[in-house]
Amino acid sequence: MLQGIWTIVVAIIVFAIMIAIHEFGHFSAAKLFKIRVNQFAIGMGPVIWKKQGKETLYSLRAIPMGGFCQMEGEDEASDDERSFGKAAWWKRFIVVLAGAALNIVLGFVIFLILQAPTAQVNTTVIDSIDQTTNLAGSVFQPGDQITKIGSSTIHIYEDLRFALERVTDQPVEVTARRGGETVTQTITPVKQDIVYTYSEEQIDIRILHNGVEVDHQTQAAPDTEEYQDYIGKSGTQTSYILGFVPKAENMTFTTAISRAFYLTLYNIKIVYVSLYELIRGNVPASQVSGPVGIISVIGQASQMDWTVLFNLVALLTVNLGIMNLLPIPALDGCKLLIILVEAVTRRRLPPEKEGVITLVGFVLLILVLLWATYNDVVRLFTGWQT
User: Fold this and answer.
1) Entry pTM
2) DSSP state at residue 291
3) How far apart are CA 342 and CA 184, in angstroms?
4) What digits encode the pLDDT tens for the residues 111-137?
5) Cβ of 318: how many Cβ atoms within 10 Å?
6) Bridge-partner residues for 39, per DSSP?
7) Measured between alpha carbons, how far is 12 from 305 in angstroms, rounded to an integer?
8) 213-236 residue pLDDT tens
9) Which of 142, 160, 229, 306 has its CA 20 to 30 A from that of 271?
């Protein structure tokens, strides 16, 4: 009971922060350009708190699943000289873009904070080569820095792992930097299976490369209540590797900023790749998750180490920012597209027509949300499918 309440509380806080940051982006940019803001609300539905400012009504609403920054003349014609419609196209573009931009900046800040407790971090520089993989005997050697796998540019170790997951065990061109030179060769990644078997006394760990055992280890079983659920079971962790131990480097302020920047780009890439795979049908539509699923995942993360929760929050806020930039009616991306068309044609779409587009898009988004929620509920009763 208490855990369920805690999950809901944490989820509400996470949603509220992400939405507040997004709407504050629109709000602050509008104020910067002297555009009149009539209402600024966090949440949807009934008002539970409100305060009238000099010209803006601030409110907090009961359902923490949305929010809005209502500007004069945004969705209707207005003669007010400070209305959204009267502002130059580039000012309106910045105001609309600011919400998503601030979500992405929030993700960057969280990633930056998460680097602080880290003493060392893995790089893409080869420290040693696993002699049981195809990297052994290749042109690559310790000290080389992996910069590209196939068409994917590699900045951080997470990029490397993501690229290998996509090429799996197919030959791929690998590029590395050695001093001022570039080294390139086609390498076939190795399928690595780590098989865990749990008993009362120990955890048995077998490492297989392409089905051949290359290492066998054991470690003492932890004396915890949670471990009792694992006894008598086994599991396999599969990944594709080039076969090298990465060189670690000390975390400095410069390194932390660099990693936070590239981790933000990495998560943006994940969003777009996931959408691409969904459109192509490589990911079934049944895997699309909605608010219920997100709340469930937030609840699980809140029971773990705090870094897991904050990593999830960073991912979600970057996801929110990127999704809002898609050129879909009712999302910021569609508004940005309309403004750009106006800038090129020098003709503005009538506010009433833009309102119809927004309404249609909103209805479609609600349908998608209902479908995603249905998926979440099914998973709650049947368990997550892998």
Assistant:
1) 0.80
2) H
3) 46
4) 999 887 788 889 999 999 999 899 998
5) 28
6) 57, 70
7) 19
8) 999 999 998 888 778 888 888 999
9) 306
Instruction: Tell me how far apart the alpha carbons of residues 29 and 367 are, in angstroms, rounded to a whole number.
Output: 31
249: which 2 tokens?
């480097």
Residue count (the chain): 386
Helix, strand, or coil (residue 336): helix
Mean of pLDDT values over 163-190? 91
Handedness of CA 283, 287, 288, 289 (dihedral sign): negative
Residue by residue, DSSP assigns 341-382 as HHHHHS-PPPHHHHHHHHHHHHHHHHHHHHHHHHHHHHHHHH
Structure tokens at 333: 């991306």
Q: What is the pLDDT of residues 128-164, one digit of tens each?
A: 999 989 999 899 999 999 999 998 999 999 999 889 8
**DSSP classification of residue 185:** E
CB neighbour list of residue 69: distance below 8 Å, 6 or more residues apart = 23, 26, 27, 30, 37, 39, 40, 41, 99
**Taken in order 205, 209, 211, 215, is the CA torsion positive or negative?**
negative
Strands annotated E in the chain? 37-52, 57-71, 120-129, 145-149, 152-153, 172-178, 181-187, 190-198, 202-209, 212-220, 234-241, 244-250
Name the 3-class secondary structure at 104.
Answer: helix
Alpha-carbon torsion, ordered 282, 284, 290, 295, to 10 deg: -90
Residue 280: both structure tokens together: 């192509």
What's the farthest any 2 CA atoms get from each other in the chain?
78
- Tell me, what's the pLDDT at 385? 38
List of residues 6+ apart from 126 with CB closer than 8 A = 140, 141, 142, 143, 144, 145, 146, 176, 244, 245, 246, 247
CB 300 within 8 A of CB 79: no
Cα–Cα separations (whole angstroms), residue 88 to 33, 94, 377: 10, 10, 46
Contacts of 144 (CB under 8 A, 6+ apart): 125, 126, 176, 177, 178, 183
Cβ atoms 324, 332 nearer than 8 A: yes
- Give the C-alpha separation, 355 to 363, whole Å: 12
